[in-house]
Structures are given as structure tokens and as C-alpha cells.
Amino acid sequence: MTRIAILNAFTRLCMMLLLIGLSLVSAPLISVAITVGDHYRGGIVFYVDGSGEHGLIAAKTNIQGHSRGMAQEQFTWYDAKAACNTFVSHGYGGWFLPNVSQLKQLYLQRDIVGGFADHFYWSSSQDDGEDAWYMYFYSGEQNHDTKLVSGRVRPVCAF
At residue 121, what are phi and psi to the nearest 5 degrees? Predict the structure, then answer.
């Protein structure tokens, strides 16, 4: 092959690689929309914001275990927060005790998420140094009580 022929072949190769690279960059990105009810990151999506990119996931079940001297699945507010902070589901961490607004949204989607008892569930929202807010999942009532009474715990995480 002559030097000119080699140069032409090399130039064609470079042009093909450039065009392939440009087509990859300009190809539309495929995104999968996450919706309420989807199983995602070890839980069930119960809230998606207006952008469709961020939201909240609830664990599929209540946290097992209990505070000392309490029945199964019954925790003080302090133990509820600690249990959420160490919770791992399907390898995913970053779970937390929902605040009172997040808990209200979880209550509204309780049939989609499933597994709730007709009991009250702790929120991370505090009323004062001694009380914290909860939501009664039988009626949707929100109230506050001393952090030492028993309540159930459903951790959430953000995406």
C-alpha cells in the first residue's frame, strides 16, 4: 500500500470513530419513571415529587424487635429512631424515621404499601423535649405523646 492509501484509510477510520462517538452522545437518554407502588431499593415507593426524580420509599414491613419491656414491634420514640438509623433492606441503608408530614403521606398510601397494624406509628417530629408526634393508622389521627410510650415503626428513605 502506498503512503497516501494508508493515510486515506486512517482518515476514514478516524471519521467513522468520530461519527460513532457523536451518535452515542446525541442519542436520547432512556429514563425509567418511578411511580407510587413500585418496588425500589428494598422498599415500596409511596411518594414521588413533581420532577418524577425524587421521592420516598417505605420499608415493606414494620421494624421487628422491641424496646426493653415492650411487646414485639413496640418501641419508645428513642429506640424507634435508633432502629431506623441502623435498618438495612436488601442491602440498602439510609433509612430514617419519617417526620409527621411524611408519615401522613405514608398513611394516605397505606393500602399500596401494606402491612400496617391498627396502631400508632412514631414520627421523628417532636412537640417538645418530652413529647413526639405519632399517627394512628386506624383513623389517621395525628397527636403527640411522651417519647417513652410504645409505638410501631416503619422506616423510610429518600431517592
Answer: -115, 135
Reading the block at residue 79, the C-alpha cell is 429506640
Interior/surface letters 60-78, b for 16+ CB within 10 angstroms, e for the rest: eebbeebbeeeeebbbbbe
What is the average pLDDT across 11-38?
A: 62
Enumerate residues 6+ apart whose C-beta is below 8 A from 66.
Answer: 72, 73, 74, 75, 150
Q: Judge whether 83 and 125 are in contact, CB under 8 Å.
A: no
- E strand map for 10-70: 39-40, 43-48, 55-59
Total-model pTM: 0.79
Bridge partners of 40, per DSSP, are 43
Q: What nine digits make up the cell of 140?
A: 389517621
**DSSP character string of 88-140:** -BTTB---B---HHHHHHHHHTHHHH----SSEEEEEEESSSSEEEEEETTT-
Q: Are 96 and 111 in contact (CB under 8 A)?
A: no
Tens digits of per-residue pLDDT, 113-145?
Answer: 999 999 999 999 999 889 999 999 999 999 999
